[in-house]
Amino acid sequence: CFLTGVKGFQFKGRSQFELRVYVDDGSLISEVLIDHR
């Protein structure tokens, strides 16, 4: 699993953020959304 590029980063306070990244795991590139609360 390789991080190919960050689409957007939005910081919502000290402990809450959203990170949209593109993940390349060989032949498939998918967009994942990490929501940490």
Automatic annotation (TrEMBL):
InterPro entries: RMI1_C. Residues 1-36 form the RecQ-mediated genome instability protein 1 C-terminal OB-fold domain. GO terms for molecular function: nucleotide binding. It comes from the Eukaryota. This is RecQ-mediated genome instability protein 1 C-terminal OB-fold domain-containing protein. It comes from Nymphaea colorata (pocket water lily).
